[in-house]
Write a structure and sequence with these properties.
The chain is an all-alpha fold. It has 15 helices and no strands. The longest helix is centred in the N-terminal third of the chain and has 75 residues.
């Protein structure tokens, strides 16, 4: 295959997946906008306290889906159809076990979790509602994540994109309907979010009804090695999502100390916009995963290198455009989520937008490199990148810079972390190529 063919495949998979991931990120962004409009700063604070658990749930789904999809694509490229179907079956087993855990947590644990996060009063009541409903919809979220990944790796990125966009658009529409005409408050917002993966699954269903799918569940016993292989390949995706939740918890605590609930609400604006920005980078990374895994399975290093080169070039161009838009539009972006016109919230959020998102090119580089290593059969470097940017560097950096520089220092902890980890990521990539 020549370079132009590599580029066409990259453009097809990456563009479709970026569009789908952008739509998927609207799950929480739509909630942020409508909750800020209907419930004010308390509603924003409540949403931000519940988001970390959603990140963990979404991360588990991605771990199973991306890990299973990666193993499936490699095995299919090696024409081992039996093993590929067993991988899909094991992904379903793992999703069912995780769904049971989250449903039980939704029935019995929302209150203790939120008290641990520091929720109280009216904010606690709204957070409890949001978290409980999200957890009870866990089977839909997990099944949707798994099938989206397998359909994408089954040569149908258009169907996967359509499902992500359809589910997310339904969430936006139902958010407005449930919160305003129906007056359902935060329960309406979370109900709209919970229904979105069900609609996504309906859009995916023709891929199976028409017999287009090349994967299917087969009768097999649970094999620890197969299950462990799926989890190991998908672990960086979990760490990325879970670490986002941990970072939100740490930043919430810092902003509660520095500026109270208004500070948490201001951070909620940045955290939710960050979901959209990171979704773009995840879209590029997840879009190239089937291509890199297929190239790895076939031993086609030229395809792998070309795909990575195109992904990094696209990421850099998008990073520059995104940061320019955020820098120039910081005040109006903050105002969109500041329905009560709180001047303190406006000032904190506008400053945060300009400082926090200087991390764009470094975060994009780390996200793409992490998934590239995973897709090419090298999960250990991916684990290192994910752990460093999620826990080992991010948390100490946030605590130290918030102590040294207050609110501006807290905003700068994210770009400082991503820059340090990007330097390590580049070193790992150079070392791999020399090896």
């Amino acid at each position: 295959m020549n370079q132009s063919a590599y580029f066409r495949e990259f453009a097809r998979y990456a563009s479709l997946n970026v569009l789908g991931m952008l739509a998927l990120s609207c799950y929480i962004l739509a909630d942020t906008f409508f909750i800020s409009l209907g419930l004010g700063a308390d509603g924003l604070a409540a949403l931000n306290l519940a988001i970390p658990i959603y990140n963990f749930l979404h991360g588990i789904g991605l771990m199973i889906g991306m890990g299973g999809g990666t193993r499936y694509s490699i095995l299919k490229s090696q024409r081992n159809d039996g093993a590929a179907n067993r991988v899909f079956t094991h992904a379903l087993y793992l999703a069912a076990a995780a769904a049971l855990f989250f449903v039980l947590a939704g029935l019995f644990l929302p209150g203790p979790i939120l008290r641990l996060f520091g929720a109280e009063g009216r904010v606690f009541s709204m957070s409890h509602t949001y978290l409980q409903v999200i957890l009870l919809f866990a089977p839909a979220f997990l099944t949707n994540n798994v099938l989206l990944c397998f359909v994408r790796n089954d040569g149908a990125p258009q169907r996967s994109m359509a499902a992500m966009i359809g589910g997310s658009l339904s969430n936006v529409v139902l958010d407005w309907v449930f919160i305003f005409p129906c007056g359902m408050g935060i329960f309406g917002a979370v109900l709209a979010t919970g229904l979105a993966p069900l609609i996504s699954l309906l859009i995916l269903s023709p891929h199976f009804r028409k017999g287009r799918n090349q994967f299917r569940p087969v009768k097999c016993r649970l094999n620890r090695q197969t299950a462990a292989g799926i989890l190991a390949s998908g672990a960086p995706s979990l760490v990325t999502e879970f670490s986002s939740g941990i970072v939100i918890i740490v930043f919430n605590a810092v902003f509660l100390r520095l500026a109270g609930n208004v500070g948490v609400a201001a951070y909620g604006v940045i955290a939710n916009l960050s979901l959209v920005v990171i979704a773009i980078f995840n879209g590029i990374a997840q879009g190239i995963q089937p291509l890199v895994s297929r190239g790895f399975g076939r031993g086609d290093s030229a395809a792998m290198k070309a795909t990575l080169r195109y992904a990094l070039a696209a990421m850099l161009a998008l990073s520059l455009l995104l940061y320019a838009a955020i820098f120039l539009g910081a005040q109006p972006i903050a105002a969109v989520f500041n329905s009560q016109g709180n001047p303190e919230l406006q000032a904190i959020a506008a400053e945060g937008l300009r400082l926090y998102f200087t991390a764009c090119p470094f975060a994009g580089f780390n996200v793409i490199l992490s998934l590239y290593f995973t897709a090419s059969g090298s999960p250990r470097p991916a684990h290192a990148i994910s752990l460093l940017r999620g826990f080992l560097v991010m948390i100490p950096m946030a605590l130290v810079l918030s102590w040294l520089g207050g609110i501006p220092g807290t905003w700068c902890s994210f770009p400082a972390t991503e820059l340090l980890v990007a330097l390590l990521s580049a070193r790992l990539l150079v070392g791999r190529r020399k090896g």
